[in-house]
Write a structure and sequence with these properties.
The chain is an all-alpha fold. It is built from five helices and no strands.
Amino acid sequence: MTETERDQNLMVVVAAEEYAARHNMKTGEAFRLFRQYEISSLIRRHYGVLHTQALEENGYFAEDILKRKNCNL
């Protein structure tokens, strides 16, 4: 695993933890949502921009995507 891949994984984990905390849910539930709506792959795809931001911004990114997909969360 490359350093970039490790960073991308960290970003996904932090995003799921942040999202779960904000929505009073378990992290596993957030991961299931991320899988269902392909949030993890979006975070990885936008690594070039997201890695320049604070880690908690990944949670906001995920939240924005889920809102746009009308998940009603």
